[in-house]
Design goal:
This protein is an alpha+beta fold. The chain is built from three helices and seven strands; from the N terminus they run H-H-H-E-E-E-E-E-E-E.
Length: 127
């Protein structure tokens, strides 16, 4: 990939929170899909009843809702209840959608250092 393409891509991305937390030199590295040499410093736990900049998708049978919060994907019954975290870690995971049969979930992730479409099973395995 050319540096010019990467520069244009990350310029368009700069309107989002993702690019606001990475420097331009790192952005070029990420665009070339190299693994990130970072590890989490600490893990936090929290409870919330609301969020913003969330992606939401209803399962084909209407029983489950996928949503994103702080870069992770969660699943919750459409009738309410406890959310189950399906992804975790440093990667930003966004725009989850159910497969037509409800057995898999497609989503966009930067786990490789660049944004790519990924899939997992509906229970969060097979990532």
């Amino acid at each position: 990939m050319s540096e010019d393409f990467c520069a244009k891509f990350f310029y368009k991305l700069s309107k989002s929170f993702i690019c606001n937390v990475i420097c331009f030199g790192f952005a070029i590295t990420a665009c070339e899909a190299q693994l990130l040499p970072m590890n989490p410093e600490r893990i936090i736990s929290f409870e919330t009843t609301e969020g913003s900049y969330m992606d939401v998708d209803l399962s084909p049978d209407g029983t489950q809702i996928l949503f994103t919060l702080l870069g992770d994907i969660y699943k919750i019954p459409s009738t309410g209840g406890i959310a189950v975290q399906l992804t975790r870690g440093l990667a930003v995971n966004i725009h989850p959608v159910w497969s037509p049969d409800g057995k898999q979930i497609a989503y966009i992730s930067d786990v490789s250092g660049a944004m790519h479409v990924n899939t997992m099973d509906a229970d969060g395995t097979g990532q």
